[in-house]
Specification:
4 domains; 24 strands; alpha+beta; nine-stranded mixed beta sheet; five-stranded mixed beta sheet; Heat Shock Protein 90; Rossmann fold; disordered N terminus; Ribosomal Protein S5, domain 2
Length: 653
């Protein structure tokens, strides 16, 4: 077909001139989400991780033991390591410095040569070049061959040649970059987010020191400098995660093995909680969706403990079969594998696909567990007693769920009596407010838009699911009402519990509580429930927190709502006609019920004016640790947290 004919048949809108071949790093700037996941805060921090991963790979190769990351006052980042330094010599085929090749060409790097890196996180060769492409300023400084080499870039293109700027007695690479404001929604780095990742990497790479420096002064003019180092590795990691839980074995079970050049390390510990917490890594990359290494671990756990329980008569009195999940209740585990040729699903590396890893992990973990059970009969007994308790509770929970999810309730007119439903039946256009108390619920019902907003009042504080057995959760009236109103159900597939959200009735689930200490506690209780039992709703971005105002500042017919102390001061200043104006009145809202329906609508429920905070999970490990600490049995860690953060609290008197 000729171009003229093609243009005619497509009304002149599509011809050869419309076909674009993106050159260099243009593809990254055109579709950044394909390479770093997103352009929100998560994607912004991912840039730092990509650079650090390169330094970590030098550590894995045996050439780097210290990485220093600095957040500068303008939110630019510097990552410095003491590895070998990126090669700077001329590339034979491309006739340019190897440094420029690595920094400006996708799929270029030393990760494809297994003589250079036996294992690596940055296997696609796109990491640091992506960071370059998405940075308005980027500088690479290499200490190598007794010299300091430097090259600068902007949005992925060199702005200088590779030059020698001085002499060096050490070796290493220093990367400095400033993200492009035209790409990212927010350029402010969070110290806590980076700190959590550094701590994680220190545990995963024992002997490596990571330093995080924040040059941005806080409200008191102080900067921060923290160092992370671990000699115990994964065993220390599990102990750190379980600090707020009561262990039922003396020390974590630590497994180390290697087969077919695949290294396996696992640390696991049983505690008295009712939740399963398994976190997995491949070449230091957090595989949030798991994969074949997690499958192998779960197979080994079920096989070994089931065999031990049957051989020693632990299950003979049970009238139902023990399930795989029973062996994992109260289990905290870290699975870390080093794979020379990992097959990840996408650049963000969320799930491992190598089929051979399943049997290798299963065999190595199985052998270690066999020795543990033989050598520690007292601890084995405590674990099996925990398994039997879990199995009994699971059977009770199954019956309780069936009562909640019975067919006539979900398909008939059995919605909770307190639910004021909306008329719109399209979930993507509908939202439900979980409101604290009948009084606020009544106000919300009057103020809402009945077409797309539903209201479900909750009576006081719901059950703390962190400290309750599962069947007790389904017996709780408020939780039962949430299950029925939302239209979700828990099903068992292949021996695993799955939350089925196909019939979810609202795609915005908004927690709306009072702006006081009790309201914050209720919000935390509900979030704990969603994190532990309705995690897919959080992962899919369906959970929100309403943000009601703290004050209404009035002068005559004029009024301004204030959400913070600073807002209040500005509102007073805006309405005052003179200093200490007695005509300016300030109303402090201690509860949603103190607002009338119109006020609640215009401040908290009107989509055109309200502020909603979407609940997301940036770090599942830290989330698990915090929920366990805030809502679990152990008091000491919770007291430490409150004392450390007390200066942020606003207490009503």
């Amino acid at each position: 077909m000729s171009e003229n004919t093609e243009a005619t048949q497509n009304n002149g809108n599509y011809d050869a001139s419309n076909i674009q071949a993106l050159e260099g790093l243009e593809a990254v700037r055109k579709r950044p989400g394909m390479y770093i996941g997103s352009t929100d805060t998560k994607g912004l921090h991912h840039l730092v991780y990509e650079v650090i991963d390169n330094s970590i790979d030098e550590h894995l190769a045996g050439y780097c033991n210290k990485i220093i990351t600095t957040i500068h006052p303008d939110n630019s980042i510097t990552v410095k390591d003491n590895g070998r330094g990126i090669p700077v010599g001329m590339h034979d085929k491309l006739k340019k410095s190897a440094l420029e090749v690595v920094m400006t060409i996708l799929h270029a790097g030393g990760k494809f040569d297994k003589n250079t890196y036996k294992v690596s996180g940055g296997l696609h060769g796109v990491g640091v070049s992506c960071v370059n492409a998405l940075s308005i300023y980027f500088k690479a400084e290499v200490h190598r061959n007794g010299h300091i080499y430097q090259q600068e870039y902007s949005i992925g293109k060199p702005t200088s040649e590779v030059i020698i700027t001085g002499d060096a007695e050490d070796t290493g690479t220093i990367i400095t970059f400033k993200p492009d404001a035209s790409i990212f929604e927010n350029l402010e780095y969070k110290f806590e987010t980076l700190s959590n990742r550094m701590r994680e990497l220190a545990y995963l790479n024992k002997g490596l020191t990571l330093v995080l420096i924040d040059e941005r002064p806080d409200e008191n003019g102080k900067t921060r400098n923290e160092s992370y180092h671990s000699e115990g590795g994964l065993s220390e990691f599990v102990t750190y995660l379980d600090k707020s839980r009561t262990s039922i074995i003396n020390n974590p079970i630590h497994v180390v093995g290697k087969e077919e050049n695949i290294e396996v390390e696992v640390a696991m510990q049983y505690n008295t909680s009712y939740s399963e917490n398994i976190f997995s890594y491949v070449n230091n990359i957090n595989t949030r969706e798991g994969g074949t290494h997690v499958r192998g671990f779960r197979m080994a756990i079920a096989r070994l403990f089931k065999q031990y329980g049957e051989d020693n008569g632990y299950f003979k009195k049970l009238k139902f079969a023990v399930s795989g999940e029973d062996f994992r209740e109260g289990l905290t585990a870290i699975i870390s594998v080093k794979v020379p040729e990992p097959q990840f699903k996408g650049q963000t590396k969320g799930e491992l696909g190598n089929s051979e890893v399943t049997s290798i992990v299963s065999q190595i973990v199985g052998e270690a567990l066999k020795h543990f059970l033989e050598e520690n009969p007292a601890e084995a007994k405590r674990i099996l007693e925990k398994v039997i308790l879990a199995a009994t509770a699971r059977e009770a929970a199954r019956k309780a769920r069936e009562m909640v999810q019975r067919k006539n309730v979900l398909t008939g007119g059995g919605l909770p009596g307190k639910l004021a439903d909306c008329s719109n039946k399209n979930p993507s256009e509908s939202e439900i407010f979980l409101v604290e108390g009948d009084s606020a619920g009544g106000t919300a019902k009057q103020g809402r838009d009945r077409h797309f907003q539903a209201i479900l009042p909750l009576r006081g504080k719901i059950l703390n699911v962190e400290k309750a057995m599962e069947h007790k959760i389904y017996e709780n009236e408020e939780i039962k009402n949430m299950f029925i109103a939302l239209g979700v159900s828990i099903e068992e597939r292949d021996g695993e519990k799955i939350l089925n959200i196909e019939k979810l009735r609202y795609h915005k689930v908004v927690i709306m509580t009072d702006a006081d200490v009790d309201g914050s506690h209720i919000t935390t209780l509900i979030l704990t429930f969603f994190f532990r039992f309705m995690r897919p709703l959080v992962d899919n971005g369906y959970i929100y927190i309403a943000y009601p105002p703290l004050y209404q500042v009035k002068r005559g017919s004029q009024s301004i709502y204030a959400w913070t102390e600073n807002d209040r001061k500005e509102a007073v200043a805006a309405l005052s006609k003179k200093e200490n104006d007695d005509n300016v009145k300030i109303q402090r809202y201690k509860g949603l019920g103190e607002m009338n329906a119109e006020q609640l609508w215009e401040t908290t429920m009107d989509p055109s004016r309200r502020t909603l905070r979407q609940v997301t999970i940036e770090d599942a490990i830290e989330c698990d640790r915090v929920f366990s600490m805030l809502m679990g049995e152990e008091v000491a860690p919770r007291r430490e947290f409150i004392e450390a953060n007390a200066r942020y609290a606003k207490i009503d008197t």
